[in-house]
Design a protein that fits this description.
Number of helices: 18
Shape: globular
Distance between the termini: 62 Å
Structural class: alpha+beta
Number of strands: 21
Number of domains: 4
Largest sheet: 6 strands, mixed
Radius of gyration: 23 Å
């Protein structure tokens, strides 16, 4: 993990002190709410449906146990005893009173954390593969570059008020586990024929009202020049992006409208920065600075490669459960004798991505005992232990069971992505949490889940797509009709992973469904797949082979509330 310097630490603590002053002036009536709003947003504080919401930055998803314990303390003492881990690898709280917000910022600063640029029209958290630095298929560790990007983009004076929020994802692996083509900028680390490290750069991806897959703008940008190239992209966007229409303000709209003209403008700006800007070349990343940052991401001192070839011991009547957990929640590692372990945050009784303070404490203890004090927040809203010795796997499973983390469902139907939806978000048209709970309860039979196999179910409470419904094999989108909650179903989406194939948005299978119909619709879709799949065929492949028609027919056949309403208005 990156280790804060004295400068980093002083910077974050000064920011917390500045926020306290701003808050106190607002509470005394000396700083108006309209003036205070951009200041609190720049520090991650929203006003949501019922209460303030804080988004805590977890850069590229890396946490240490001390930080997680502090998050647990904040949940316990200031919120309603839980936090929510998001698809952008951050942590959110939904119930912290605004008058206590400065206290929370100071607690975060104590452990080198903050909420800076987790909101507002700026460059947000840089995300990456949760297996970064440990994946066997990785060519280049993206974390040092993500950290350099984080430092460069934090409070960048030119990009503090962009037309809209801006998201960057980076991966260095052969498989894209960071969904880079769904981002404003997607970065693929690679090596050229000479062995030099550089980036393939994609631009203009995004979800929302107009889902767009990013386009390749540069095949190879040397790593030294990547900040300059990104600066050129964001500068052109800042200059020409629309500010007159909130729904057309994202860079994807500009790229789609201008096409090659946008690419030409970026490459012209790139050359101009390097050749004409005063000290433009100063934006090149010096080797010594990359090496300084990369030193934080070397193999931890406690890692000792050992002979691999893990063979689980027999554990009597627990063997099947342990074996299932090994297959689903335990992942290959680049260091011999080690595995990565996912702690599932998807189970009955809690919203996807939620963890209580006790569960955070338990995960921190597991990290200390079994993962050298380190954890990751995954894009799929789970936690991951990156440094587990194979010899400790049974003990980790036992500890995970005790904390409610051991559901062997990673990659299965109940390992769904879901935003908080209308229960919390002021923008949401419909609730996500009750739908997620109903589907989870419907598919509790592990034998059935395993027979269904790999499937991505993603759910958003509104068109802003925080639940990434466009990229789900099954997508669920909450919509509003005359003040009622309805849900649109899409099929065939992909995030760009090896399982899903090239990134593509799912397609709608018909009119929306009422809330109480959704679990039946999902079951009908799954039953159709099971009835018509070929041997060994996964859900996404069956959908692509058959097309939408049989799934639409099955979904329409279980309409009840909507069928009655349609008949009444016919």
């Amino acid at each position: 993990m990156y280790k804060y310097t004295d400068f980093d630490r002083q910077f974050v603590r000064a920011r917390a002190a500045q926020f306290r002053d701003q808050l106190e002036r607002n509470l005394r009536g000396e700083l108006g709410d309209d003036e205070f709003r951009p200041l609190r947003l720049q520090n991650g504080w929203y006003i949501q449906r019922h209460a303030p919401m804080l988004r805590v930055a977890v850069p590229y998803g890396e946490l240490n146990s001390r930080q997680l314990r502090q998050l647990a303390r904040i949940a316990r003492e200031y919120d309603r005893d839980y936090g929510h881990f998001t698809t952008r690898q951050n942590c959110q709280y939904n119930w912290i009173p605004l008058h206590q917000s400065a206290d929370v910022m100071e607690l975060l600063a104590e452990v080198d954390m903050h909420g800076i640029q987790t909101s507002g029209n700026c460059i947000r958290n840089i995300t990456t593969d949760a297996l970064a630095g440990i994946a066997p298929d990785e060519q280049v560790d993206p974390r040092p570059y993500a950290e350099v990007l984080r430092q460069w983009s934090t409070l960048h004076p030119e990009f503090a008020f962009l037309p809209r929020k801006f998201k960057i994802a980076i991966t260095g692996a052969a498989e894209d586990r960071a969904a880079i083509l769904w981002h404003d900028i997607g970065l693929q680390l690679l090596k050229n024929e000479a062995g030099e490290v550089g980036f393939k750069v994609f631009v203009g991806g995004g979800m929302g009202r107009t889902p767009v897959i990013a386009a390749e703008i540069a095949a190879f940008v040397p790593w030294q020049q990547i900040l300059v190239y990104i600066e050129a992209i964001v500068r052109v966007y800042n200059r020409y992006g629309r500010r007159d229409n909130l729904y057309k303000a994202r860079i994807k709209i500009l790229v789609k409208a201008e096409g090659q003209k946008f690419f030409d403008a970026v490459n012209k700006e790139f050359r101009k920065i390097l050749e004409q800007d005063a000290e433009g070349a100063a934006h090149l990343i010096p080797l010594r600075e990359l090496e300084r940052v990369a030193a934080s991401f070397a193999l931890p001192a406690g890692v000792r490669p050992a002979p691999s070839g893990f063979q689980p011991a027999r554990h009597g009547d627990q063997q099947q459960a342990f074996s299932r957990w090994l297959e689903r929640n335990v992942h290959a590692h680049k260091v011999s004798g080690y595995r990565a372990v996912t702690l599932s945050l998807k189970r009955v009784g809690q919203a996807p991505g939620d963890a209580t303070s006790a569960q955070m404490e338990a995960a921190a203890t597991m990290a200390d005992r079994y993962s050298l004090g380190e954890l990751r927040v995954t894009h799929d809203q789970n936690l991951l232990l990156p440094w587990v010795r194979e010899a400790d796997l049974y003990a980790v499973w036992q500890a995970a069971k005790g904390a409610g983390f051991a559901s062997p469902n990673i990659g299965l139907l109940t390992d769904m992505i879901a935003c908080p939806g209308g229960d919390f978000c002021a923008l949401a048209n419909a609730r996500s949490i009750p739908i997620a709970e109903a589907i989870t309860e419907r598919f509790q039979d592990l034998d059935e889940l395993w027979d269904i196999g790999d499937i991505d179910l993603h759910m958003s409470g509104c068109i802003n797509s925080c639940g990434h419904h466009h990229s789900g094999h099954i997508g669920i989108l909450g919509v509003d009709k005359d003040g009622s909650e309805w849900y649109q179903i899409t099929l065939g989406g992909s995030d760009g992973s090896a399982l899903s194939g090239k990134a593509v948005a799912g397609k709608v299978i018909g009119p929306s469904f009422a809330a109480d119909e959704v679990p039946d619709v999902i079951e009908a879709i799954i039953d159709t797949y099971r009835a018509q799949r070929t041997e060994g065929e996964r859900f996404i492949d069956t959908v692509r082979r058959l097309g939408l028609a049989p799934f639409k027919t099955a979904a329409d056949a279980v309409r009840s509330a909507t069928a009655v309403r349609e008949a009444a208005t016919a």
